[in-house]
Amino acid sequence: xxxxxxxxxxxxxxxxxxxxxxxxxxxxxxxxxxxxxxxxxxxxxxxxxxxxxxxxxxxxxxxxxxxxxxxxxxxxxxxxxxxxxxxxxxxxxxxxxxxxxxxxxxxxxxxxxxxxxxxxxxxxxxxxxxxxxxxxxxxxxxxxxxxxxxxxxxxxxxxxxxxxxxxxxxxxxxxxxxxxxxxxxxxxxxxxxxxxxxxxxxxxxxxxxxxxxxxxxxxxxxxxxxxxxxxxxxxxxxxxxxxxxxxxxxxxxxxxxxxxxxxxxxxxxxxxxxxxxxxxxxxxxxxxxxxxxxxxxxxxxxxxxxx
Length: 307
Description:
AB_hydrolase_sf, hydrolase, Alpha/beta hydrolase, AB_hydrolase_fold, AB_hydrolase_1
């Protein structure tokens, strides 16, 4: 019996320490509607969103919870497994820590995969799901990136880029190397940059890069490798899952940048058709980081939908 008690208290201690490793910050009045921001990755963090947008959402009457997933960003943890189930455990821990029965999930980029699968597994915990430049069908995104960058490289006669595209196409499509190569090509072709930065967006990015949050912009380069090693559900298509969620009556909203180069027009049209016109916003002169590229339009959409 004594040994059992010792084991029990040891487990409690481990859980407590694990909880302390998770970076979490709240903004606003806890009596207001809760919004949980789920960042991109693997290897991402919430620093840009937290620096630029979290407090402004709180000022609009929401209780905003920002966190970095276990082993990513400021949630340093050398024992992290990097799986969806681990991400679900951390989200459930946030619900418990802040006494939340339900919350709206704002999911950005890879965070869209996490939030969609979490909503499928725990539908009673989700008031609504907001897809913000969120991945839905990974292979469709990779195919679009490779097809579009190849078209540009052929037009410019860029043999170096064409060679890189060919090497990427021959990689294992369920590997971290394939994912990285696709997004590297996208980045080299400015797929993540808004075409005509506004004065407001330039100030937001500048303030971030010269402020305290940029200093904690930690990128765990091992996170994608570990995720693709440990998680069986990689390179997934969440379209059927989103259809299931919608059929259950959980509101889905979608806000995307018109100039986000990683999504094809077919993908954007599919998302719009799924969520309906009044649940969809396509923001002009806006790329992947829409909450910073066109912050006012982003905030206006959230305010309109999550009343």
